[in-house]
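ok so for the tutorial part 2 we go from a plain amino acid sequence to predicted structure tokens. step 1 is just haveing the sequence, like this:
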Amino acid sequence: MAPGGNVYQDVTESRAAIADYSVKSANVEGRGGLRICNSIGGRPGMASNSAVHDLLECPVCLNIMCPPIHQCPNGHTICVVCKTKVQNSCPICRQELGNIRCLALEKVAESIELPCKYHVYGCQDILAYHSRMRHEEDCKHRGYNCPYAGAECPVTGDIPFIVAHLKTDHNVDMHDGSSFNHRYVKPNPHEIENATWMLTIFNCFGYQFCLHFEAFHLGAAPVYMAFLRFMGDENDANKFSYSLEVGGNGRKLKWQGIPRSIRDSHKTVRDSLDGLIITRNIALFFSGGDRQELKLKVSGRIWKEQS
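step 2 — the prediction. this is what the tokens look like for a chain of 307 residues:
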């Protein structure tokens, strides 16, 4: 059932503000060491431990501080992100922070290398601070956003974690196999609104794929749309193709395409119209009967392209 919406039926026939800013319990970067450096690029390796870590550790988030680094009149430092969270009050001595920069510590930060914050997910790159942020925006080891489309879900993680999260927290259907038949039912299809049916995950070829089906307005026209997303990066997604087919009364509509990576948001894929689009009139024609109920059967197949 779509959260907060009307009753939908998805029948599967699968074949196959912080109270104490001076305390922080954990951080994604961990307590990896630093290395004094003169280079600006990244390279594989392990950073060595250094007392410089304690100088550059933000007392609020415990992450390594990069310029601009702010300090209070007593010399306590804080990163620029946390400065906005503490309402301009030093988390150590409660003095007003103002806009004092710690230029000496910024110079230290410019001379070190740090491990990518996604080293906990397997990235071994060590980078100078000014190239680290650019790297982390596209790091192949960064976590994935939860692909569930029925609600804004803030969960991120690697693929095995996301798969377990979908099954446990969203009760998503999991099916094995590369071919499927789904039947989507809506009692009153004349009342169409932005809504999604329950997401379905397919396990095949050692990967997972997300099948989406939803109703929305394309301009003024009510439509239904089905599309597939790949749970992984674009390079791997491009190794696969899929087809979707819907029909009835001796007619068929078919879509063939490449699954989009879940790096692309659900809304991005939907708004690009990269999938099987069915107008309400055609959907009701396929449903047959008195056109008072939607009964739409969507079949599909996933295959791996020959390299």
